Amino acid sequence: MASRRTYADAVAALNTLQTNFAIVDAIRKSGQGMNKNSIPEMVEWCRRIGYEPSDFNRLNAIHIAGTKGKGSTSAFIASVLGQYRFPSAQKPERPLLHKIGLYTSPHLRFVRERIQINNQPLSEEAFARYFFETWDRLEEAARAKGEPLDTTAKPGYFRFLTLMAFHTYISEGVDTAITECGIGGEYDSTNVLVKPTVTGITSLGIDHTAMLGTTIEEIAWHKGGIMKASTPCFTAPQPPAAIKVLRKRADEVPTKLHVVDRNPLLRDVKLGLAADFQKTNASLAVAIAHAHLVALGHEEDRKRRDMLPPEFIRGLEEVRWPGRCEIRREENIAWHIDGGHTLESIEVAGSWFASQIPPSQSPKGMRILLFNQQTRNANALVEALHRILASALQKEQPFTHAVFCTNMTFKEEGYRPDLVSMNTSSAAAAKLDVQRGLAETWRVIDPETIVEVKGSIEEAIGWCRNVAEVGNGDGKEEVLVLVTGSVHLVGGFLEVLETGKG
Known about the structure:
Blueprint: H1 7-14, H2 20-30, H3 38-48, E1 61-65, H4 70-82, E2 100-103, E3 115-117, E4 120-121, H5 124-144, H6 157-172, E5 176-180, E6 198-201, H7 209-212, H8 216-223, E7 233-235, H9 240-252, E8 257-259, H10 278-295, H11 310-318, E9 326-330, E10 333-337, H12 343-356, E11 367-371, H13 378-393, E12 401-405, H14 426-431, H15 433-445, E13 450-454, H16 457-471, E14 479-484, H17 487-499
Parallel strand pairs: 1-5, 1-6, 2-5, 6-7, 7-8, 10-14, 11-12, 11-14, 12-13
Antiparallel strand pairs: 2-3, 3-4, 9-10
C-alpha cells in the first residue's frame, strides 16, 4: 500500500527521475532552447493523474515568474495572506482564507520544503502519501496504455513535483496556491494554470541563457508567458527594453500590466527579510496580495491609500525565508548567508554584506568568503562580488580569506538524499576544476587574500572555523563570513550547521 511507504522511500524514488541538471544540460548542448511542446506534454501528465488544467482553477492560484526575488516575493505574499486565516474585527464570524499553498524551488535542506501549506512544509508522512499517490496514478496510466513502468512512465524531477503539488493542494482543499515558476514562464511546467487570480513578475536579469536567450528582451518574453486574459499582471520595475516586451505581451493576451514602484508605506515597516532590495519584493507582494483579495471578493478596493491594513503589516514583518540575507551567529563568527547566483543577485548580496560590516571593525578585521557555483559563469560572479565590495569598502580589502568548495554536503557521507538532485555534474564537482579556477581568479584579483579549495561544504565550514579560531587573536572581534554563490551551497551549509558537523 502507498500509505506504508516512507518519506525516505519517496525521496529515493524521486531521485531516480531525470534531474533538472540533465534536462538543462541537454538543452544547452542541443542549442535548441526550451521545449515548445512542454505545455501539451504537461497537460497530458496532468490527465494521467486524473486532472484537467481547469480543475486547478479552484486553487485560486497566484502565478509568479522572474529572475530574482521570486521566492522572497512569494513568501511575502504567503505571509500576508496567512493573516486572513484568522477571524478579524471586520469579519469575526469566519476567516477569509483557510489553507494557503506555497510552491517554490529549489529547496534548501528538505525537498518537502517546496510544497507548503499555511507556511509550513508538508510533513514527511503527508509528503510520502501524496508522492506515492501521484507515482501510482502515473504507473496505472502507463499500464493501461501498455507502456513500460520504468522511469519513462513519469516526468522529470521538477515536473513530477509540480504534478504532486497540484494534487496535494486539490486533495487538501487549498483555497489559494502561490505558485512559483521553475525556469522562464511560457514553457514552464507550472504554466498549465489557465485562470490564476493574478500574475506577478519579479526583477528580471540574465540567467538560464541556453534556455531563455541571452538578451533581456528574450528573457522578458519568456517570463511574460504567464500572463492570462483578464487576469491582472503586476511587475517590479524593469529595464526599459524588458518593459516594452512585457507591455506588448500584455496587449496580445490581452490583460493589464501594472508596474509597481517601491511603496512609500513600507518606509516604517520592519520587514522580516533583511536588505534594502527586499522593499522592491515587498512592494510587489503588497500589490499582488491586494489584487488577489479583491479577485476573491474578500476586500473591496481600499478607499484609503495612505495606510496598509494591519494584516499586511503583520505579514510583512513576520515573514521568514531562510538563506536569503540571513545572519547566524556562533562563537567568534557571524555567518552571512545569501543564495545569490546571478550577476545581479551576487551584487545585491555583496552590497548587503558590506552594509553589515560594523564601522567599529578594525582595518585588520577578518572577513572570509565561502563560495560555490558549479554551472554558471562562476568567474564572472566572483569578479562582480569583489568589485561591489571593493567599491563599498573603498581602500579596505574585501576578504582576508576565501574558500571555494563544491556543493557536496559532507566529506564522508556525500549528499544527504534530499540534496542529491542538484543542477550540477557530479563528475565535474569531483575534479574540483571549477573551484581551482575560482581560486586562481581570486588570487589574481586580490593577491593578498589567503585562498583555499575544499571538496565539501563540511570541510569549508571547518576551515572557516579554524581560521577564525587561530587568526582572531584575543577573539574579541567577530569574524564575518559571507556564504554565497548558489542556493545549493546555502542548503548544504544549513544542513551542516543544523546537524552540528563541520
